[in-house]
Specification:
Elements (H helix, E strand, L loop, with lengths): L1 H30 L8 E5 L3 E7 L8 E6 L2 E8 L18 E8 L4 E11 L2 E8 L14
Antiparallel strand pairs: 1-2, 2-7, 3-4, 4-5, 6-7
Amino acid sequence: MAYRWGFVDHPWRELRQLQREMNTIFESVFERPLEAAPACNVYAGDTDLLVTCELPGVTLDDLDISVMGDTLTVKGERKPAEEVQREAYHRRERRMGAFSRSIQLPNRVDAENVEAQYEDGVLTVHLNKAADEKPRKITVKSA
């Protein structure tokens, strides 16, 4: 009977060791500051694009938006509301710090006609497609 338990315990011992090693890897990854880049959605219409980004805790003064070609870049910084010593945290999931997020858009856009709004922690950017990217109606003539 002891031999049987020794045989059965052996694979479990190796799995427990693997679990300990994986936990060590994940703990080391999540101990580092997490990148604060926002989650974004891109919606494409016939003549325009709409981009929304979640930016809770970012003020307008800490936000910079630029467009070049077919790339929208959102930069900013999430500042902590209050500084608490690291040892005092029980759980810290909110990401803080500077971020930069570049999104390649499905089309080139007219950089001169971009509108952005920021409300309730959500950035909404409305971009018109470049003139040569918009669908053009072609008139068909009969012979």
